[in-house]
Amino acid sequence: MRALTIPMLLAVLLVAATCYESHESMESHEYLNPFINRRRANDFIQAGSRLEAISQERIRERHKAPQERQREICEDYYPCELYAFRHGYAAAYRHYFGRRRTK
């Protein structure tokens, strides 16, 4: 009986230690209402910086890196895209579009 009591006591202590829920997580105000209204959500971003960020994004869209333009050209041409899966987009672009043939 004593041999069974000690493992049972250890099992109860182990369950109590792992299943203990602290009340610290319930103390925060977000526990009851995790969502905030739109005005409070947007308070930390000023309108000027938001507009500036949008314009910077538009500028980046207009001026793409040469590698990105080459990759988009290669993605539009299916044989080039298949070649790129095996050898990479730079090699595929050079293979299909690297040298232009003129008469």
Automatic annotation (TrEMBL):
It is found in: Secreted. It comes from Merops nubicus. The keyword Signal applies. One of its GO terms (molecular function) is calcium ion binding. GO terms for cellular component: extracellular matrix; extracellular region. Belongs to the osteocalcin/matrix Gla protein family. GO terms for biological process: cartilage development; cell differentiation; ossification. Residues 1-19 form the signal peptide. SMART domains: GLA (SM00069). This is Matrix Gla protein. Keywords: Chondrogenesis, Developmental protein, Differentiation, Disulfide bond, Gamma-carboxyglutamic acid, Osteogenesis, Phosphoprotein, Secreted, Signal. The keyword Phosphoprotein applies. InterPro entries: BGLAP-like_C, GLA-like_dom_SF, GLA_domain, MGP. It comes from the Eukaryota. Residues 52-98 form the Gla domain. It holds the Pfam family BGLAP_C.
